Amino acid sequence: MTLSSNSASSVVKAPEKKSSLKANQFWARVIFSISVLYFLIPLVATFYWSLRGKKDVLGFEAYKKLFADTNFLPAFSESIVNAIAAIFLSLLIIVPTAYWVTLRLPKLRPVVEFITLLPFVIPAIVLVFGLIRLYSRPPLLWTATYDSSRVLLVCVYAALSFPYMFRSVDNGLRAIDVRALTEAAQSLGANWVTILLRVIFPNLRTALLSGALLTFAIVIGELTIALYMAQHTLGPYMADLTRSKVYEPSAMAIVSFAITWAAMGIIQLVTGGQGQTTGGH
Amino acid sequence: MAYLTLSDVSKQFSDTFAVKDFNLDIEKGEFVSFLGPSGCGKTTTLRMVAGFEIPTTGQITLDGRDITNVPPNQRNVGMIFQSYALFPNMTVSQNIGFGLRVRKEGKSEINDRVQEMISLINLEQHAHKYPYQLSGGQQQRVSLARALAIRPEVLLLDEPLSALDAKIRVSLRAEIRAIQKRLGITAIFVTHDQEEALSISDRIVVMNAGEMEQVGTPFEIYNFPKTQFVANFVGSLNNADAEVVDPANGILAMDGVHFKTAEEDFANRRKGDKVKISIRPERFSFAAEPMKDNVVDCIIENITFLGSVVRIQISIGNTKFHMDTFNNPFLELPAIGAKDQVMCSKEAVLVLETA
Known about the structure:
Chain A is mainly alpha-helical. In chain A, 79% of the residues lie in helices and 0% in strands. Chains A and B meet through helix 7 and helix 8 of A and strand 6, helix 2 and helix 4 of B.
């Protein structure tokens, strides 16, 4: 009796389950489609607009004009150099710090985490006015020349990258047995520099790349700080472009998107879509 | 003078002594195991020899040099870790050659030494593989080769077999011992596995709560434990309360049943003293030879078949004991509940501490 009643109830429940599963799948597809449209429509519209550089003809006229503009490439290359410099500076500060915190000072982790989060807390406009006030008078006269301001800008960009860089590096360090690898290298005669360069850095490759590319993405189009520090980088150039041109800003936005996507693609390519590679299986 | 000496070495973390007044001399080529439960200080002692911990007090000398405060990368001490600690970004060959590259040795010398080490661990087919492509046993062999490649003065092994499965553990420990003997290298092996320590070591240091309980050969540690802790930790042991009856003749009583002991200082005890006696299960046998020192009546309580050994639970007086006997197809086991007689020699009755 019990068996037959159970069977009957399961027979009744099976189609119910199937229909609820189908309903779930339907709503999942609807939500996915809306999300895709939400992201794609502005992008497609921008791209379409960027192709209307010539009257009544779709083409890459706006892109041609953009790349032909004598101000574009210097601004673009200056932003790239700034980004690369900021990445190196950030790596130089964050990797040894995160490594040391993991290895020797784990109790300080919350403090370091809080410090690295400060760029999120302080708005860029507040940050740049603070910087100008502090570095525009002796003894820290760093805004006197264009080049010294640029150095200061790179330092600020490095600081802006801390939230991303620290978390990337910290995740990478958690994925490897830092203590055992360090001690193994020490017992084999390695000093701290050798350990960092030959053991820790190579095993954080993916984490470092993620942090570096995120930093790159932030720095490449940064406007507020660069503008107030009178730097001729891509951010201020884009702002100028928006004021004076019609189709080129859209072309610029698409180029910017392409650079970001290329950066994401590199992360996927290097990580194989699996995040940090680890050893010691 | 001994090759490696630890003199009055202590290590204190906050208010707790992880290691206290540790004294040990290790001769060149000797294989010494630190054996003890978790938290007994064995790994801390090993890490002090490696240089990863600095002793709070005491001195460590290696081949006559004081290395107490020498950084780990200047000690020339090889270390093997439980987690293998192979560099994930390097192949087997690169891992093994790492120490030599750090020492800036010549390229051809590095290649020769790496090949020699790979042959030593029989992993010629895997030289270009990365650690994640190897099994646990293979990874630990690479770790051994990497530590030996630098020709260390001492090889330190921190529970190197703990992460491996039982069969690999047995074969790898034999391999480690064979390589150690062949190279004549001084080795310290940390383990909490008594069987591992007994099977591999020239000497064993049994540790408990940061202190050294006993140092001796595996034979001495097993057969002549000096403390109740050592007797209990190494092998199985029956413990019982007893009372001294005749100190001069080594007679004591447990639940009214008389036992004779061969303990050296038993004569110094006084009649009526309460003591604890310990007898290993394999020292009991059924009383086929009535001339043995201790022949006592017992009741068979239970019989457990353990493969090569049969464990029989007996009660003598009101106390339950285990006795172990080797299994054989013709073994005639008594019935449960039957009355029988068991015996043991007077040397088997250990008096380890006063009750």
